Amino acid sequence: MKNIKLLLFTIIITFLVVSCEDDGGTSVIPLDEGAVPNMVKAAGSEGIIDLVRLNSGENITLEFSAEIAQGNPASTDIVGVYTTLAGPVYTSTLFSDVSLPQDFTVTTNDIVAAFAELTSTTDILLGDVLTITTRFTMPDGTVLNIVDPDGSSGTGTNIQTTVLFTTVINYPISCPSDISGTYLVSSTGIGCCGVAPITDYQYTVIVTDNGGGSYALSDYSGGAYDGLFCGPFGICGDASGGNITDVCGTLGGSSPDCCGDLITFTGVVNEDGTWSVQVASGFVFAESVWTKQ
């Protein structure tokens, strides 16, 4: 398996070098004269910055490792990019002139100290995201940013989407989330095209934990498409899968449906563990209650 992975890595890198990795960024890194990192969160370490613990005064520790996946930089910095929900993006150097590979730890107090824009941990807010990656200086003096100061990617899409290495790690400011499982969904809603409405239509949805507050739904509509369109149009079963996020009990997301439109998903996790949800698209509007089985 290791040899297969190495062979795939070599093939992909060779292809990228030939094509010079110019595939859609305004400041892409060409691999034939650049470098990219592999960033990994430590096993069993924090996946998010837990807002509940932070607000209780805990100094949370983040643990990760970094190595060079490709290239021969002259020097390396570990940088942080803090993206606020409100819009502003802040950039800071967390560790200067480091040797890789290496394991690192950084605390929330360290984060506040690193960013001039953060005066205390009370400035670390729900929905913000801390991104950690590298900045390379090449032997000819060229500086390569994996993430640009404005928060945009400094690499092309081939590097961003490869499964062979991870160029950035993200720590969303959120709350602990554990809502995976099998849910019985009861939906009431209406559809387009003259179909009959549904009332308390029941459907089973599998919710899979992706980590970091992200969850995959086996059916994004919670069975509303099945209930409304299976009989009239033969659109039956899971109409489309997709991901939602849980941010301290607020659920949201959007995903393409089976028919060329987009389903928006909004909801909340109630105190009893049920979800109250609305799904909407150009074809459907439905409200539903999700109950874990």
Write up what this structure looks like:
- It is a single chain.
- The chain is an alpha+beta fold and 293 residues long.
- The longest helix has 18 residues, at 2-19.
- The model is unreliable at 1-27 (pLDDT under 50).
- It has helices at residues 2-19, 51-55, 108-114, 157-161, 224-233; strands at 36-41, 49-50, 61-70, 75-83, 89-95, 102-107, 129-137, 143-145, 169-174, 181-191, 198-211, 214-217, 242-247, 250-256, 262-269, 275-280, 284-292.
- The protein folds into two domains: 26-174, Immunoglobulin-like; 181-292, Beta Barrel (Lipocalin).
- A hairpin with a 6-residue loop joins strand 10 (181-191) and strand 11.
- The relative contact order is 0.13.
- It is elongated and about 65 Å long.
Q: Separation of termini?
A: 38 Å
Question: Averaging pLDDT over every residue, what do you get?
Answer: 88
CATH architecture of the largest domain: Sandwich
User: What amount of the residues lies in strands?
Assistant: 35-45%
Count of all domains: 2
Number of helices: 5
Strands of the largest sheet, in order across it? Answer: 10-11-12-13-14-15-16-17
CATH topology of the largest domain: Immunoglobulin-like
Order of helices and strands: HEEHEEEEHEEHEEEEHEEEEE
**Integer-rounded radius of gyration:** 22 Å
Silhouette: elongated
Determine the structural class based on helices, strands and strand pairing. Answer: alpha+beta
CATH class (first level) name of the largest domain: Mainly Beta
Number of strands: 17
Q: Poorly predicted ranges (pLDDT <50, ≥5 residues)?
A: 1-27
**Main sheet specs:** 8 strands, antiparallel, barrel
What percent of residues adopt helix (DSSP H or I)?
Answer: 10-25%
